[in-house]
Amino acid sequence: MENLALIDSFSEFKDDKQIDRVTLMAILEDVFRNALKKKYGSDDNFDIIVNPDKGDLEIWRNRVVVADGEVEDPNEEISISEARKIEPDFEIGEDVSEEVKLIDLGRRSILALRQNLISKIHEHDNTIIYKQFKDLEGEIYTAEVHHIRHRAVILLDDDGNEIILPKEKQIPSDFFRKGDNVRGIIESVDLKGNKPAIIMSRAAPIFLEKLFEQEIPEVFDGLITVKKVVRIPGEKAKVAVDSYDDRIDPVGACVGMKGSRIHGIVRELGNENIDVINYTSNLTLFITRALSPAKVTSVKIDEEKKRAEVILRPEEVSKAIGRGGHNIRLAGQLTGYEIDVLREGAEEDVELSEFSDEIEGWIIQEFHKIGLDTAKSVLEHDINDLVKRTDLEEETIRDVINILKEEFEE
């Protein structure tokens, strides 16, 4: 009973852990074998008999009987006189099995055993948690805000597992208070040391894809397929959807009457503007749809260079580019093609890159970022508008406009 009482004292905390008695006893055996190695130098000649039903174990040391004065290894050999104290009829050469009581290991060893056991159980728990969340990678998960730090929000789920939502994985408009429930995607799970690091994301495109699965029954049932999602978190997203059933309008089903179905998703994403687009394998048509809400006049595709030249009426150009260049950037990501926007009747236009001798490359790049690739596309914009939409000084923009005007005045 001595061993049983000690083991009970070791495992009194196990009820708070996700560990069954059989696993606990296996961990106990491993811990005791390590303790025996430390005390006796080896555990090879020890038998540990585990009884998981009773929650008990026995430790037996096996030694060979040798003549008095011939003991070379006290761990593996026992003198005839010592052996006969255990059993009076032992003879030289016989094996002696003697039970080792835990109390015989000493108080210090027992404390070390307890600490080692706690450590092993934590390690076991962490492995279970790691496997559990590894299976949840790419799935939506909900947890409660526990602590708000400068660079991350620390969440706890119902089981007390810690989940990290880094600042860069949040939507820019996200604002959390302690106790708030937060939905996001389990983006990655790694073991750091022995502790699982669980990272949540609300900015990943797959979060939006999974929200479609949760909120739109036809997507959940597989009647509508989400082909691709691209996002600028909190600003704008484009979702290409398809259906193999001609009777289903995938865009209509996803948006709902007056946007009723998609409204909850938009609200979850901080009023992110979501364009839902009918997917098609017809590349010209897909690029045209991707530039919605702009109406495209014609598309010229260079498949080798993965570029598309799109011609629009002048009043449609700003719609195609979108605020901050978001629309054209997402259209390019959705289709996999770099899209160049040209205005109707702009055949005499000149690419900005042609002015690289007079205009520095980084300035040309600033115009490219907002979808302005040609001289006329820049000249058609008001200077104040260009100052707002780029990171360029007004004086720099005036210099560029003067250079471009000279081209067309010659």
TrEMBL record:
Domain named K Homology: residues: 233-306, 307-388
Primary location class: cytoplasm
Keyword RNA-binding assigned: yes
Pfam families assigned: KH_NusA_1st, KH_NusA_2nd, NusA_N
SUPFAM superfamilies: Nucleic acid-binding proteins, Prokaryotic type KH domain (KH-domain type II), Transcription factor NusA, N-terminal domain
CDD domains associated with the record: KH-II_NusA_rpt1, KH-II_NusA_rpt2
Superkingdom of the organism of origin: Bacteria
Transmembrane segments: none
Keywords of this entry: Cytoplasm, RNA-binding, Transcription, Transcription antitermination, Transcription regulation, Transcription termination
InterPro entries reported in the protein's UniProt record: KH_dom, KH_dom-like_a/b, KH_NusA_2nd, KH_sf_prok-type, NA-bd_OB-fold, NusA_N_sf, TF_NusA, TF_NusA_bacterial
Subcellular location: Cytoplasm
PANTHER family xref list: TRANSCRIPTION TERMINATION FACTOR NUSA, TRANSCRIPTION TERMINATION_ANTITERMINATION PROTEIN NUSA
Function: Participates in both transcription termination and antitermination.
Subunit structure and binding partners: Monomer. Binds directly to the core enzyme of the DNA-dependent RNA polymerase and to nascent RNA.
Family of the protein in this entry: Belongs to the NusA family.
The name this protein goes by in its record: Transcription termination/antitermination protein NusA
